[in-house]
Queue: 2 jobs
Job 1
Amino acid sequence: MSELEQLEQQVQNLSTEDLAKFRAWFLELDAQLWDQQIAEDFEAGKLDRLIAEAREDLAAGRAREI
């Protein structure tokens, strides 16, 4: 059995209370990892084209600031 399969089995066996705690922890971890990836992509210039397009759309009236 793979490590992932073992983890899946353990999660399925959690109590309702522990599953809720695990879910909250996992969602927070996932959000932190996503924020980290966005920050790394920004620093690496991977978002530059999208930012430029958004600014062009804003200047041309095809978008609005929120």
Job 2
Amino acid sequence: MFFNKHLTLLKSPLPKNIKNAREFMNKMNYPNLTFNKICITYYNGKEYFLHYQNLIHCIKNILEVPGITEDFALSYENYEVR
């Protein structure tokens, strides 16, 4: 996950794999954190759907978890684009 990759702490407050991250997200009870469903293909008489969540809403809800931002460090480097 992006946050774990750029973490400067010894222990991450976020899940380390997709399965745990999904369970973490499923435990969050926010009205704007719902799944959307879209048909992505129709094959051999059967429809196949993609269930997804809006990424921006996921990030907003993660940041609303009490105490999760207390260890965040904000740093950046300026790079010159040529």
